[in-house]
Amino acid sequence: MKFVLTLLLASAGVLSAQPARRAPGFSLPDLEYKQYDLADYRDKVVVLDIIQTACPKCIELTRTLAEAKTKYGDKVQVLTIVTMPDNAATVSKFIAAQNVKSPVLLDCGQVIGSYLQLTPKNPSVHFPHTFVIDKTGMIRRDLSEGDLTPAALIGAIESALK
User: What is the residue-wise DSSP string for 74-121?
Assistant: First the structure.
């Protein structure tokens, strides 16, 4: 009975299957070489979006994140991270085409590796991948592929805002 109740609560989103972990710190530049440091966003919920600019699902997610930023305003900071093969040209084109207002940061792979906990036994990177980080710097949700829906993302943001 306890197992069934736990399973029902987890599937309803009442229990999180993911234990919180401290968000790895970073400082990354945007196209103008302005540095963005995660520590500067304490007391805000941070939505960290890892994408590739040519990924159709990533483009869709960019629109959802823009809507979330509009809805929650200064309570939430959206930071998008790209890595190779993206470069200044592809990022610039992406920002213009998608009318992106939130910072798009350039990573050589180290930050993404830290967040995705990449190892030789876990070398896979799937795009998009989104982390919702609470006001204290703890990762509260790790969303990717099938579980990265607009409803799940908004639910994770609202939960982190509490």
Answer: GGEEEEEEE-TT--HHHHHHHHHHHT--S-EEE--SHHHHHHHT-BTT
One digit per residue, the tens of pLDDT, for the chain of length 162 reads 333 333 333 444 444 455 689 999 999 999 999 999 999 999 999 999 999 999 999 999 999 999 999 999 999 999 999 999 999 999 999 999 999 999 999 999 999 999 999 889 988 888 999 999 999 999 999 999 788 999 999 999 999 998
Residue of 48, 39, 43, 97 lying closest to 68 (CA atoms) = 48
State how far the alpha carbon of 161 is from the alpha carbons of 41, 45, 119, 157, in Å.
13, 7, 32, 6
CATH code at position 47: 3.40.30.10
- How many domains is the chain partitioned into structurally? 1
- Tell me the angle at which helices 150-161 and 56-72 cross, rounded to the nearest 10 degrees: 40
Instruction: Flag whether 52 is in a domain.
Output: yes
Query: Which tokens hold the place of 118?
Result: 């990449």
The pTM score is: 0.85
